[in-house]
UniProtKB/TrEMBL annotation:
Name this protein carries in UniProt: UvrABC system protein C
Biological role stated in the UniProt entry: The UvrABC repair system catalyzes the recognition and processing of DNA lesions. UvrC both incises the 5' and 3' sides of the lesion. The N-terminal half is responsible for the 3' incision and the C-terminal half is responsible for the 5' incision.
UniProt cross-references to HAMAP family, sorted A to Z: UvrC (MF_00203)
Compartments where located: Cytoplasm
GO MF terms held by the record: DNA binding; excinuclease ABC activity
Organism: Streptomyces scopuliridis RB72
Signal peptide: none
UniProtKB keywords: Cytoplasm, DNA damage, DNA excision, DNA repair, Excision nuclease, SOS response
Amino acid sequence: MADPSSYRPKPGQIPDSPGVYRFRDDHRRVIYVGKAKSLRQRLANYFQDLAGLHPRTRTMVTTAASVEWTVVSTEVEALQLEYSWIKEYDPRFNVKYRDDKSYPFLAVTLNEEFPRVQVMRGAKKKGVRYFGPYGHAWAIRETVDLMLRVFPVRTCSTGVFKNAARTGRPCLLGYIGKCSAPCVGRVTPEEHRELAEEFCDFMAGRTGTYIRRLEQRMTDAAEEMEYEKAGRLRDDIGALRRAMEKNAVVLADATDADLIAVAEDELEAAVQIFHVRGGRVRGQRGWVTDKVEAVETAGLVEHALQQLYGEESGDAVPKEVLVPALPEDAEAVTQWLSERRGSQVSLRIPQRGDKKDLMATVGRNAQQSLVLHKTKRASDLTTRSRALEEIAEALGLDSAPLRIECFDISHLQGDDVVASMVVFEDGLARKGEYRRFQIKTFEGQDDVRSMHEVIGRRFRRYLQEKERTGEWPEQPEQPDDSEPAGPLDQPGREDDGRPKRFAYPPQLVVVDGGQPQVAAAKRALDELGIDDVAVCGLAKRLEEVWVPGESDPVVLPRSSEGLYLLQRVRDEAHRFAITYQRAKRAKRVRSSPLDDVPGLGESRKQSLIKHFGSVKKLRQATIDQICEVPGVGRKTAESVVVAFAKAAPAAPAVNTATGEIMEDNGGSTHD
């Protein structure tokens, strides 16, 4: 690893102007490319104290052996040069979106004498009109098959076209009316081009006028008793409507827009794009990337725009590009997109209406894509085995930790403090063994004390189970100091038929936190005399792994499967803890004085509230008025009034005979 100070440029060497910079390693390979409004200010950020850098940035600058830059005149030029260099050098520390397929487009070759409709992939060609992209090629072919009835444009290859012209016989589509057969002169080149342009107009969203024109022609033909012609027009209209139904309208006014959403965590990000043309979703695509560099959502959006439009032809850039966060140099990016399109492009965050709703849908797709990617990665047996081996090697364990337990503390500003314990065996979650805890030994917020208490309680129970005779009871006892997972997380008994217990010790305990939490967990184990369970902590901000007694963390490689597994375990513990904490808070908020009335069940509570319309009106009611509720006697009514009086801030005296609340001064009464 290189010392960044060894290749740091001298003061005054770096110009204070826009430009693009490259970091190279000791083999002169470009490992990172970046751009900046001010090269001097941006590069100075890389040559500060290493402890203050993000771990991924720190790895990059210590891997590099030199830095060089190129000055440009504008930020737009910097954006273009950055993209060109990223494509040329493929730097290992830049964000790379892994597109799992080349998405197909519906293309109309207007640059030919007889335009052809076909499926195209790859780089865009000048003079070709593109629609899409589509998720699958068969979706294009279905749409085209419906529309050829109305717009019989050529779809055959050059070889087939020339052969038909030579023999004077059209292909099968020409015989069945799905091609106008320009190859044999049934239509002139001008007439065929007009058909192709009408096809493009319809695909671009200008559908209403054309269908109304066909409907008028159908009506005229029927009035003139040309029923065969009217029937054909009717079928044409039906075919066009079916083609339109395949792409439901989502935005009004025939909007052309691309919507880009990002779902991310500390290590990976998923990008989803919806292509809306003519107000309809014409295509969808997505990428997943490792976050090799320290990049925020705005940076991910900028990289996605470069990836999406860097090699596209100008007509592939829509009028509107909607994003979840604007890039840092939003004006420069907008200008670059406008230059690519040849006209003004709007780059913005949708704030309201249909576009905001559709953006939320794109966001859900991005989140689902990220979850699916992680699920596939976690379900691979080879990957899980490698992850466990990497953890064992990094922590110096004798063997792979086949059972991992992770603990997390959750609270809201010190209230409703709870903890969670999640269990992973062989790299997979065992939700039936999850446990949740309430902090009992003290009040308030103290994550370190809470972690010490929870670890102690869990392993104290383990020692108790260990001392038992080993006979499994028919119905397992639940520990007094913890709660089992809720019904959504508890499928029942173990796969082998044995009850779930605290009797199984983990090989590794992971805590959510840094040195203090790790020390607290280790102290709890030492106090119980347990020395065969390893402990580590995962600090969320920098994804550093802390072990007891060490002043420096263990830094696993960013691409490490072991780090990925630890992160997944930690995130699951956090999810389970915060779910329990929110449930407790919601239950506390929903509580009412009626809960303290003896003998008043849920059914009669609802009857009381329904009768009076609200808890507030019930609070103001007298005993006689409460007795009017079916099923409520006088004794219960008196208990209700007393319960509300006790819950009142001043807790005034209550006249149980009348249900009236007495004033403190002994004077008049009021309801």
